[in-house]
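A quick aside before the break. I want you to see a complete sequence-to-structure record at least once, exactly as it would be stored in a machine-readable document. Don't worry about memorizing anything.
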Amino acid sequence: MGVLNITPDSFSDGGRFFAPAGALAQAKRMAAEGADIIDVGAESTRPYGAQAISADEEIRRLRPILADVVSLQIPVSIDSMKAIVVAWALDNGVAIANDVWGLQGDPDMAKLIAERRCPVVIMHNRDRADPALDIMRDVAEFFTRSLEIASQAGILQENIALDPGIGFGKTQEQSITVLARLSQFRSFGLPLLVGASRKRFIASISPSEPDQRLGGSVAAHLIAAKAGAQIIRAHDVMETLQALRVASAIWDRE
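That is the input. The structure line, written in tokens, reads:
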């Protein structure tokens, strides 16, 4: 899953692809590099300092670029916490909803996903990090609640993937713990998605700016894949895919 941020305040790429021409060029680049999904987001959801925007503004940012990204003929997901934005995106060719509040934010999200019968990524999140928290238990309980909401709304089980939300509502140590113990979430019997790309926890181990965290991102994603992650969400598609292919070839000889 290649990341396309159409935002002026993304932590990872600082608005590099905010302009439609730049966004489309990046989408084409990721498609050419082998992305299976392009994840488009028009509102920064970074854990610290993100500026909330209205649904109208989110759609305004998406409108000039979304049709062109959809025309690339690979599945597109919409990274949004607002049901009205997800509905608009689905009406305009998007195939997947990526909800950073795991159906527990917008009360209309679950009903929408059920009605549209589209795949949804349920991500764990918290309003703030709590260092005293048992993070593995918290993520598991959050997933359980989200899956109850999904079931009550009529969302098909086969349309759900789970994302433990690396860097969201977690201390740096907690993000590392989630990655180290990721395999525990396989007990839910659903595909796992991991997006560790350029996240702050990498800098807590090896001081670096977001665009200097490729090595750490790849390391985290290889560990996640080994633990059972079936979808990797990354900014650097070519490098991540090459690493995954080489690692997979080696793992096959074990």
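Two observations worth writing down. The longest helix spans residues 135-153. The domain at 2-251 is CATH 3.20.20.20 (TIM Barrel). We'll return to this after the break.
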